[in-house]
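Morning run. Coffee first, then this:
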Amino acid sequence: MEAILKKIAAFADAAHGDQRRKYADERYVQHPIRVMKTCQQFGYPLPVLAAAILHDVLEDTDVTQKQIREFLSSMMSETDTNYTMSLVTELTDVYTKDKYPRLNRRQRKAKEADRLEKISADAQTIKYGDIVDNASGIVEHGADFAPVFLKEGAELLKKMKKGNKDLHQKAMDVIANEMDQLRTHDHSSKKEA
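And here it is:
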């Protein structure tokens, strides 16, 4: 399984190309690999781990579903490939700025939250891992954006309750911890002013 996961990570890395993380100086692929490792800690099987690595590919790259499917089917059974593809599709944002230019971010995120509330338990579990990785350290690296992101993450977690309970709690704890840091950061900023 590890050899397959390495190949999938290399595929995702190639797909994301020169993309970098917004608040960390690292290749983008490091994020989905961490999401996969988080899911792996909870004992998830290959199709879920593969989807965790690929969860942003359709949304953020020019790679198509057909290309991902062909790649996966060279190493995984048809059943596993189909399941991974269904999870990746569930995790791909529908309410994007490109498709819904008349909606503002808050409106798009609210519609996305309603959609994510209905996705499968395994897809929600991957999303919990995504929130854990994206929220961890956000106050330190992106204090301006942190209040918006943390509020969105908290709202998502209120709606998404079907996935792994322990990972859901971990995501809630990360959000709460970052919100505490944000309050401390805001308090010290006001003192300095």
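Residues 165-192 form the longest helix (28 residues). Good start to the day.
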